[in-house]
Amino acid sequence: MPRPKTMPDEDVLTAALLIMHASGPEGLTFAALAAGTGLSASTLVQRFENKQNLVQRTLLQAWDGLDRLTSELSATLPMTPEGAVDLLVGLSGDYGGIETYADGLRVLREDLRDPALRARGARWRDALSEALDERLAGPSGPVPGVGLLMASHWQGALLWWSFDPQIPATDFVRQSLHRFVAVLAAGAAGPLTA
């Protein structure tokens, strides 16, 4: 079968992300990507110049996808605490089993190493926190910071699930977030004391 002459960058970067998840960031080479896309390695080098650019563009495209999913869920879910839970559960759906989650953590390492990718993650954190703040607003309006607190709890729940993945991640997350919302509601009824 002849090699394809062209392939959109988006498709090439999708293939690159699959390689990163399957083989780790170190497994993403121009040779591996050429094998995965059918394009020549020299064509890929011409497009992306070096591995650092390839990894960065791959992960920026992944952030674009996460931004889109967050916006889509935010546009369709109610402005209620249950809507906040559903938003985070919806963002948990791609983790699948423990192996997929663990592979994602290997890829996350690359996000943390690159200042541009860290900045992108910080922008997503802010947008997600705002969407959660709106859904957790009390009678007097949003409580600044509560969305970030809930997002932090969500990430912690995923981590705790990973040590004992007896049920699907989305079920564990939903149960944990319902407990979190219940504590928030109890705190709204009266202040917690230290």
UniProtKB/TrEMBL annotation:
Q: Which residues bind DNA?
A: 29-48
**One example GO MF annotation:** DNA binding
Q: Where is the HTH tetR-type domain?
A: 6-66
Q: Please give the name of this protein.
A: TetR/AcrR family transcriptional regulator
Which branch of life, at top level?
Bacteria
Q: Where are the transmembrane segments?
A: none
InterPro entries for the chain: Homeodomain-like_sf, HTH_TetR
Keywords, in A-Z order = DNA-binding
Keyword Translocase among record annotations: no
